[in-house]
Amino acid sequence: MRKEYDKKLMVFESCPDFSDNSRGFWEYVVKNTDYKTYWVIRDEEVYEELKKQGVVCGLDNSEEASQMIEKAQFLISSTFDFAVQKNVGQVHVSAWHGFPLKVIGFFDSASSEEDTFDSLKVITTQTDIITATSRFSRLTLSGMFAVDPRKVKETGYPRNDIMFWSDAKKELSKLLPIDVYNSKLFFYLPTMRKGLKGEGEQFDDNIFNYLDYDADEIDWFLEKNNAYIVAKVHFADAKKYKSGDFKLPERLIFLDNQELERHFCTIYHIMNAFDGLITDYSSVYVDYMLLDKPIIFSCPDIEKYKNDRGFVVDDPTLLMPGIMIKTQKGLLENLDKILKGEDEYKSIRQEKIPFFHGHVDGDSSKRLLQEMEKLAGADEIDSGKKLAHLFQRADNPLSQYAISDIEAEIFFDVGEGFSEKNKMIKKYDLVKGNDEKVVFEIELPEKTRNIRFDPDHIGRVRIRSLSIWEDNHRISDYQIVNGSRVKHEIIFEKEDPQIIISLGDKEVKKIRIEFICNDLYCTSGNIINEMNEKMQQVKRENSELRRVLNEICTSTSWKVTKPLRIINGYIKKNKGDKSC
């Protein structure tokens, strides 16, 4: 029976806390619906502030937060968090955090570890809805995450809704010690530079990475025009970009992440306060296009970034509806044009916006909620999740990929217990045949007292005909952990399966482990049939015994000898009784 969930409960998460598309959607939900909401928060200071503001929340990994995640009908995150915890019947939404200009997912050269891609496939399969802003972003996201494109929904991003209703100048005035109402303001939002590998230049010398950087010249220009540049770096780079790291113009102001959090403000609450955007490869420019204001792309390292990280198209300028500059001279020239009211790329932005946005409005959250409620009421799963049974059917060619190499681990206790430093890995293949014997010949380290044999990591094997030899002596004394013995077989259906072999004080030089192994994932049906057949055989044998016993009990000889059996029983009962 499927578990029942609280149909009116939504649990939220974002990185950083209380932000991004999760935050935008939450704003809509609390103002326009009767759903209950709960935030899972990582930062204790943010948690305490949210509690003071009356936001229902709990700390990540706390018992309360875990319970809320377990019982909620809807789980909403800005990435794929919650995907692992999500159970059948729950709806997981990856509200995501940007239009795909840079390659991500399976296309990301910054992530090359196979385990990373395996984990990515698990969480993307677990999720039920991924938000997108347009048909192009929908197709790109589904391709880079290798998911069913039907679960990538063209709802728009909920965070962009905030730009349509927030009093941006008022919110910004709470954050900056300047006159935001009578100044010209430019927002500088560079993309993340601290990644899994080199991602373009790291901006170690100056905030723009210009070869012709001159802080005094920038300051002179801004002061002359009563203008400011407000810089907000990616939260992942916040520690690196501190205003004291290198010389900055006085009119270039860092917008502190903690200050934003303290005022429960996101960049989307203040975006409309600016007269123009300066960025490089950050997808924030796609959101800013909804405001129809000038955009400058500052890309002095575009070739290096392209080689290091990569873009979804060979020529990223095709997706940049604004001037691209590589020098400080180019920056100041184009800021001057904007200050004079020139907007050379206005027609190009208007021409390209359907490519970036299927909806130019503030109703993304409304559309997302409709998709969520539709999915919750449909009681069905997407094609990605349905694939699981194809790998488990022996008559399907995909089953051959489900039973590939298995890694067995053999641990040696030499007086310090079992540890990773005294371990051997043995690979074996379950595809070779149901009755082909696996043989491990293992030379033991000196002073080995105990051996732990883990047939696999997750518990998926059925072991038959197990024999263990110490040197040339076969043993039968071993302990089974996280498995069950069924007659002459061992079924390991739980995680961390183990067979413990104790050598005691014996000086054993070599052990040999022999067994026949089947994969429970793909042969569970056969195993069940075999077990049923054995049970039926036992039933038949019991039935035959009952029939024979009944014949004996109803026979004439049995009845005639009954008095003798009574006397014999009396004698046995009183045998040795001296009073007789």
From TrEMBL:
Protein name stated in the entry: CDP-glycerol:poly(Glycerophosphate) glycerophosphotransferase
Subcellular location: Cell membrane
Membrane topology of this protein: Peripheral membrane protein
Organism: Dorea formicigenerans
GO terms of molecular function: CDP-glycerol glycerophosphotransferase activity
Species classification: Bacteria, Bacillati, Bacillota, Clostridia, Lachnospirales
Biological process per Gene Ontology, one example term: teichoic acid biosynthetic process
InterPro entries: Glycerophosphate_synth (IPR007554), TagF_C (IPR043148), TagF_N (IPR043149), Teichoic_Acid_Biosynth (IPR051612)
Record bears the keyword Transferase: yes
Coiled coil segments of this chain: none
Family: Belongs to the CDP-glycerol glycerophosphotransferase family.
One Gene Ontology cellular component annotation held by this UniProt entry: plasma membrane
Top-level taxon of origin: Bacteria
Pfam families assigned: Glyphos_transf
Keywords: Cell membrane, Membrane, Teichoic acid biosynthesis, Transferase
